[in-house]
Amino acid sequence: MGGMPDLATIAVFCAATLALLVVPGPAVLFIVTRSVAQGRSAGFVSVLGVHTGSLVHIVASALGISALLAASATAFTVVKWVGVAYLVWLGVRKLMQRSEAAETAQMEEHSKRRMFWEGFVVNVLNPKTAIFFLAFLPQFTDPGLGPIAPQILVFGLLWVLLGLASDGTYALLSSALAGRLRRSARARRRLDVGSGLVYLGLAALLTGEKA
């Protein structure tokens, strides 16, 4: 069956992927923030949102859309600043949020939906993720095996599976450590401030990357 990478290549890819995933980046910070602020299920919903966003970048890489983004300074800048603006908005909203609002948000079912879409949008609007997949996934492909797109999809799905395991572990650990803190309204307020600062920090990182 042509088109499938060999096991040795897959093993090297998995090792490289795990090495990259265990280093906390914007997605991990987002997941930890959510898990600490609203618990394990919120963390897992955020993990699903983030990696659904990863699928968009993977498909875009396979179809060559990310190549267009990398080639166009204007497109890169527009997507970058939309992502930065969104993170700033999340950060400012968290900093201004009152403790009662945080409690209400936990009770509403639609809040989990919102967390999913926030994770999705944070990842999709991060142009560094698009560029990363464009640069990383093709390194493991072999034109001799046939079309590149199916190979990129295979590696992309492996990335998502490993990412779900790695980020799910981050969500589990951070929510377990934060359980007692959430009972105090004062601690909850500190978590809101911490969350806001994390979002603003991520925005600053994105801004400084290509400044």
Describe the structure.
By secondary structure, the protein is mostly helical. It has ten helices and no strands. It is globular. It starts with 6 loop residues before the first helix and ends with a helix.
- The proportion of residues in beta strands is under 5%
Overall pLDDT level: 75
Total beta strand runs: 0
How far is the N terminus from the C terminus?
46 Å
Task: Give the gist of this structure.
The protein has 211 residues and is mainly α.
Describe this protein with a few key phrases.
single chain, 211 residues, mainly alpha, 10 helices, globular
Topology (elements, then pairings):
Blueprint: H1 7-21, H2 26-38, H3 40-63, H4 65-71, H5 73-96, H6 99-107, H7 110-124, H8 127-136, H9 148-178, H10 185-209
